[in-house]
Amino acid sequence: MKMMLAENIRSFRKERSLTQEQLAEALGVTAGAVYKWEAKLSVPELDLIVEMADFFDTSVDVLLGYEMKDNRLEAAVKRLKEYRRQKDHAGLAEAEKALRKYPHSFQIVKESAALYHAFGIDSGDNSLFRRALELLEQSRLLLSQNEDPQISEQTICGKIAMAYLGLGERDRAIELWKANNAGGQYNPEIGNNLAQSGHVEEAVPFLSDALAKLLSDLLITISGYVSVYLNRGDLASCQAILGWGIGLLLGLREGDKPNFLDKVSAAFLAALAGVQFLSGQKDEALSSLIRAKELASFFDASPSYDESDIRFITRIEGVSAHDGLGATALDSVRNAVSRFENEEFTALWSSAAEG
User: Fold this and answer.
1) Residue 191: inside a domain
2) Contact at 8 Å (CB) between 260 and 321?
3) What domain range is 273 assigned to?
């Protein structure tokens, strides 16, 4: 709590062109008392504060300069998030105040746990990890209050596992991740920590599955961004994300072996050509279309949908690659070209395909 009493006494006094002696006389105190108030060496009695507020024609709150903090639950949650974002350790005391006021609030307990865990990572202080664990376990009991679809008992257990990891209890963390690994959401954590603890062969399937899922999500995300940028007319950003994605996918080639990502890269190259064409870069568009045709033909000559042909990925039990790009890689290129609905661009593709 911060008050501005000393500053306000001085400010109100000067607004009325009063000396410290004149104010002291009006209030029936010594000039030395007024001096101490303004110098923050002492605080006037309550009755004198009320009398001064009346003398200055203001309220006690205004004279004190006290602004009541918004302690409603939503505001408290927002403050805790901001303390974490700013890495401000004063947030720990605020978290404990909020917990005393709202001990049965899922949001407060969850955000307080996040604060303790974040500062535990920053400092390596085990006491912070232990407090985070207490609060995370408490949040599980309050989960019925949760309205965020991205939060579940499994995600909370994942955070509990992270706290155990912070305490050096790696095996316990791994087992907790394994027990809550719906949809393979903790495969990266499990694989990474198994590998770090020397269980290399056990780690590989988790890491392979994690990488395969990451690639699938990445392809969908890039496609989404392409649609966003095309709708916005931001052709430069569209070219940038397609170029980045194509480079990344081609970097996952295992020597000269074709893999499923070649088919995707060919479609991306055709999309890149369309964006270049719309940007007035017709020579670059033709070059991209030629590359798309060559890569598609390379894949179609010996198509592979085996995930283990992708660099860094081993065979994953029960996994198979499917797409809606087209029956062949060349079909995927044609389909990408047709989506631009531009006769001149389609003609450019025809010349590239025949060349």
Assistant:
1) no
2) yes
3) 206-354
